[in-house]
Specification:
By secondary structure, this protein is mainly α. The chain has helices at residues 5-12, 28-39, 41-64, 70-98, 111-127, 133-143.
Length: 149
């Protein structure tokens, strides 16, 4: 029987508040599952679809014109990376919604686990601004799914 990373960390915590999550604690799929249960799949999918389209639309003019100075081209790279981050989360959300994750609270989670998930959700909100970070984390976790149990 597979155990989620929260069930594994439940054994590590002896009580009290969990420490601040780091970049390596992010489990995109588990955090998106929590987010979908709280806000609904339709809202999350729409949110990240619009964000990825708008950020790609902002990036294209910067990237398509070769006569643009390199400092301006970096804006395009930033917005393109942000667009790919949103797209990675969109794909994860679509995958979870097809698995049947619905908008309903998970009553088996303890307050400590909910606190950790909320912190991870905020951390993903910060990490999504780093170009290509969420994309790289999602790809890594997808490729190493079997070894992270």
């Amino acid at each position: 029987m597979k155990q989620s990373s929260l069930q594994n960390t439940r054994r590590k915590w002896k009580g009290g508040e969990p420490s601040q999550p780091s970049l390596f604690d992010i489990n995109i799929k588990e955090t998106m599952s929590y987010d979908i249960k709280m806000h609904g799949a339709r809202f999350i999918i729409t949110e990240f679809f619009i964000a990825s389209i708008l950020s790609a639309a902002v990036a294209l003019p910067y990237l398509l014109y070769p006569h643009v100075p390199s400092s301006t081209c970096s804006y395009g790279v930033f917005w393109f990376g942000f667009s790919l981050n949103c797209l990675a989360i969109l794909v994860q959300s679509l995958s979870l919604s097809r698995q049947g994750i619905r908008k309903e609270p998970d009553l088996t989670l303890t307050s400590l686990e909910i606190s950790k998930l909320r912190r991870l959700t905020v951390l993903i909100g910060i990490v999504i601004v780093l170009p290509f970070a969420t994309l790289i984390i999602s790809l890594y976790q997808t490729l190493h799914r079997g070894t992270r149990q």
